[in-house]
Automatic annotation (TrEMBL), chains A, B:
Residues 46-101, 188-280 form the DNA/pantothenate metabolism flavoprotein C-terminal domain. GO terms for biological process: coenzyme A biosynthetic process. Belongs to the PPC synthetase family. InterPro entries: CoaB-like_sf (IPR035929), DNA/pantothenate-metab_flavo_C (IPR007085). One of its GO terms (molecular function) is catalytic activity. It comes from the Eukaryota. This is DFP-domain-containing protein. PANTHER family: CORNICHON-RELATED. Pfam families: DFP.
Amino acid sequence: MQTDPQGSASFSAESYFATQPAPASLDNDRQRVRAFVRRQSEQGNKVVLVTSGGTTVPLERNMVRFLDNFSAGTRGATSAEYFLKAGYAVIFMHRQFSLQPFSRHYSHSTNPFLDFLEIEHKPAPNESLSTTPEITVTPEKREDLLSVLTAYKKVHRDGTMLTLSFVTVNDYLWLLRGVSEELSEMGRDAMYYLAAAVSDFFLPRQKMSEHKIQSGKGSLHIEMDQVPKILKPMVDEWTREGFIVSFKLETDPQLLLPKCRQALERYGHQVVIGNDLNRRKFEVVFVSRIAPKKDPAHPAATNIDDDTFTESWLRLSEKDTHTREIEEDIVNELVRRHRTWMNNGR
Amino acid sequence: MQTDPQGSASFSAESYFATQPAPASLDNDRQRVRAFVRRQSEQGNKVVLVTSGGTTVPLERNMVRFLDNFSAGTRGATSAEYFLKAGYAVIFMHRQFSLQPFSRHYSHSTNPFLDFLEIEHKPAPNESLSTTPEITVTPEKREDLLSVLTAYKKVHRDGTMLTLSFVTVNDYLWLLRGVSEELSEMGRDAMYYLAAAVSDFFLPRQKMSEHKIQSGKGSLHIEMDQVPKILKPMVDEWTREGFIVSFKLETDPQLLLPKCRQALERYGHQVVIGNDLNRRKFEVVFVSRIAPKKDPAHPAATNIDDDTFTESWLRLSEKDTHTREIEEDIVNELVRRHRTWMNNGR
């Protein structure tokens, strides 16, 4: 732990894990991941870790107030469905109560399932006058529900999805490290799709107030420390061979590409997917690094700039936004790149 | 607007509404409330406003980060069901994506409805070899679902629930004022059940950052202003005759009763329901004020202490916590008190 010029503590990943407490469920979660990874390996399945939803930063130990990051979990939940469709097994690590694959189609706010269930009074089988009420599905909703339900049942039958949950940024960091270490067993066959919106700041346990912060004493002052940049140890230590995809969300279009490139430079992983808050449903950009093609005979002759990036934009046409989801294209592109990554390792 | 000794702005309700922008949906929401109140009045229904869920305090105008208050919306959603059952019409004003009456029983995380739907392949009616898949409800889940669905359909058929939503504390404050003013038309026939967990602090629009706050520049400093205490103008101006119930949630048991009494003293409304964060599912306390019985012939002889409070505790036994919900008892008690309140006004 170091103190920056402003006097606040700056945590390395190492000092973070040495000083902040692990969540109580961590050991159990790791065991579940271990068993899942073993089973999928035996069946020859590739595995993708999908992280999804925002993280909270509690301001009190008895949590009443917290800082949060905007994320309903749409990107993660939708992508998980397409990964499953593409034959991947999925570890779905999501913020508690954020959207989940399959049930996401039936948000209680926008498409409540109670609205398309009906009560039908059918005559009882013994032809008496009494009727037994039956619950049926509204005909016009039947086809869509049948398709979602069929995919859902298949995933449960095949055991190809493991669901884990987190709430705070501390839960998230510990769980990500644990899952990555377990999943690193699969080497290049594992993909990491880090779609969760993780807080950049946190309040160390040691600085938290025990009880609800009382109002009535003027304004509220909060000072938070930076969350350590965990992509670096993830690439260097936790899972050296994994195919790692991170996300950058910005609201200022000028910053999007520079921030994506900066992340690749700093952490050395495979892909950054950039998206603008207001355009994310129909436009993303894949940023990756062109590895210098070293000529083994003339190592000194390599003059391709090590910091050359490729950027490919993926856009849905306006017509398509109403009938298709951009996550289908994102996943297809990543599956293709992951295949190349695996072949390069052989 | 005044500046406190620490130099931060302190807003009165008046200066708040004069300086912070109204949400775009406000006029439309008010019109919906007006029509709803008129229809319920014609039908002789009492109306309760139930507020539910937490409010957010955005740190950026293009919201990525926000301060939030812990609340899934269980208290509000559950109570709304019991108010409907007791014959009240309900204006359910909730934080977007928080729990809602009826669908709350089928949380996607803990009781996903896809789990109790089944696909049955029944022979087609023409007795050919093809089958048409049908969606049916798992037998052991049928009775519960039928009961929830029946109540849900009845409310929709009768038009006795109006749902409104908010996200930020600013949305909430404007909407609460608007709904209260519309509902004040009903005088003593209206109840206000303020179960939402409202932030005590906010960031004035004028102080917000336009874009996502960038990390990488050391720690994060936030300074927030106090949200004006709106119960005071609510009681004095927005709805003078309404039966107003507010909630106090604390984590320190020592503070619970003093804070409840303080709220009644300051705002002069009817009931404060106090609850401890960890005991709220099975224990609450009703705090109200004993009005001094003034003798009109001898006004000076009134010597009952104006600040005498009654406290009645409501507790579920351990056995009951598994089969009953404390909101049923809370609502029954309030319906009884509201009846007295209405009679006293006649």
